[in-house]
Amino acid sequence: MDQALTQKLRRIHRVNRVLWTSVLAGMLVLIVVALFFKFSGFITSAVLQGNPQFDNLMLILTVGLLF
Predict the structure, then answer these.
(1) Which residues contact 47 (CB under 8 A, 6 or more apart)?
(2) Domain tally, the chain
(3) Whole-model pTM?
(4) What CA–CA distance (Å, rounded) separates 34 from 13?
(5) What pLDDT is attached to residue 26?
(6) Host domain of residue 15
(7) Contact (CB, 8 A) for 48 and 54
(8) d(Cα 58, Cα 52) in Å, to the nearest integer?
(9) CA 7 to chain centroid
(10) What integer pLDDT is reported at residue 50 of this predicted model?
């Protein structure tokens, strides 16, 4: 391959790697925060049970964060 094309592909790969590492780090932080709230007792099971609006809100929030 051409040297300029190789350098351009390396630069694109480097940027892509940084972006996906940031996405992965963000997902891991969200998982840690969710586990912290779950096991610390801030959110109890009584609050989550029997409330379909809360379940729908969490589903919409999760899908929103996914995209």
Answers:
(1) 54
(2) 1
(3) 0.56
(4) 31
(5) 93
(6) 3-66
(7) yes
(8) 10
(9) 31
(10) 66
Round to the nearest angstrom and report the end-to-end CA distance of the chain: 36
Report residue 16 as tokens. Answer: 């892509």
Report yes or no: 25 and 31 within 8 Å, Cβ to Cβ.
Answer: no
55's CB contacts (< 8 A; 6+ apart) are 48
Per-residue tokens: 54: 């809360």
Give me the pLDDT at residue 20, please.
Answer: 95
Q: What is the pLDDT of residues 11-66, one digit of tens each?
A: 999 999 999 999 999 999 998 988 888 788 776 666 566 677 777 788 888 888 87
Kindly state the DSSP code that residue 47 receives in the 8-state scheme. Answer: H
**Alpha-carbon span 27 to 41, nearest angstrom:** 22
